[in-house]
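CATEGORY: protein folding

GOAL: derive structure tokens
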Amino acid sequence: MRVLSGIQPSGSLHLGNYFGMMKKMIEYQEKEELFCFIANYHAQTSLSDGKKLAVGTLEAAANFLALGMDPEKSTFWVQSDVPEVQELAWVLSNFTPMGLLERCHSYKDKVANKIKPNHGLFAYPVLMTADILMFQSDKVPVGKDQKQHVEVARDVAIKFNNEYGEIFTLPEPEIDQDVATVPGLDGRKMSKSYGNTIDLFLEEKALRKQIMRIVTDPTPVEDPKDPDTCNVFQIYRLFVDKEQEAALRSHYEAGGLGYGEVKQELFETVRDFFAPYTERRNELIADKDGLRKTLAAGAEKARWAAAKTLRKVRKKTGLTY
């Protein structure tokens, strides 16, 4: 089964990225045909600083590779190194009803959160559709907020296939309910757009500062607390097994637990979890030419797969004459 996913390098990658997408992709490469990319075209909807985007792209790739992405077991590339996706996005734009895009809640949510609306943000689902359909993806692991975009891709594929025959595989979204939405510092979905993240590979002081900012309620230390409404607990549970989670839950419900104490434990847990990967990440960042060669090799594999799909599309739509 072919699995596809991408991640934006519009800022430092964070725990939401890791548990919501990166960890799962690294596991998928052992059992499925994995296509995974750094979505730098998509990142332009929120980041116009070219230098930051370039640096962020390499850092995102280094983070992924350090955490276990294996270019020999997967196809791993940078989105803009496969320009065929932009051509397909244009073709698919002509099969995407305006009403379908107008109903996308992600766009409306971002605008409501003061993100400047533009055509790129509005048409984001079409480019995502091109990413998905170009590589004939069977399964697309996403968070709940992106599920609708996979449904858009499926609708567009059906419409295109009805016109020209069975060209595109119909994708299915996959959502892990346990980590579908990782809460940020303020309780909303952890997102760079909201500035509420706990970033990967931070120096200890900066990491502790972020974790200590997690919003909690004013329940006194001695009183019982509800773990299901606590942002600290919801993040902490991602790092522990079921037995440890049950023990922490009991501690919450018994009373006598201070949020500061749990935050300190969470800080130490996050620090220790990522420590083994830090040296490899630093080596990758230090050898940028080597990192670029790895990404170029991945792009070559991706372009070969993309070309197979695009040849069919160009022939059916009359672009080959």
In short: Residues 288-317 form the longest helix (30 residues).
